[in-house]
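Structure in, sequence out. Go:
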């Protein structure tokens, strides 16, 4: 059910095309950058909410109560933790990756250049 809501939101945004500019586009981009952290954190947060009896029982229908709980409690917690882990863990490692790739390409070019012009030792 939750996945269907997200799929409809994404399809609506893509279908709107030019309407999804500005704030909506920036918001979706921001969430997209943090999507891996959201993916990693969503299940532990939901499990903790269930184990600590953090389920809101508002309607009596367990499926609807789960959707309300996920939307009202889970989603803000997950997005907040994802923003924190993205800034503290993921982003610094992504910055290292760029340096690593640029250094690796320099080393590769040097190695190829050295192989192309061997030195003759007499």
């Amino acid at each position: 059910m939750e996945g269907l809501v997200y799929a409809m939101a994404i399809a609506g945004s893509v279908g709107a095309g030019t309407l999804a500019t500005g704030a909506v586009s920036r918001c979706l981009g921001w969430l997209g950058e943090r999507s891996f952290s959201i993916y990693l954190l969503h299940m532990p947060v939901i499990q903790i909410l269930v184990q600590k009896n953090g389920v809101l029982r508002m309607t009596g229908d367990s499926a609807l109560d789960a959707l309300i709980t996920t939307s009202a409690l889970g989603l803000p917690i997950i997005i907040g933790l994802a923003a924190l882990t993205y800034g503290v863990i993921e982003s610094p490692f992504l910055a290292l990756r760029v340096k690593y790739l640029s250094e690796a390409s320099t080393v590769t070019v040097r190695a190829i250049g050295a192989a192309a012009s061997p030195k003759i030792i007499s």
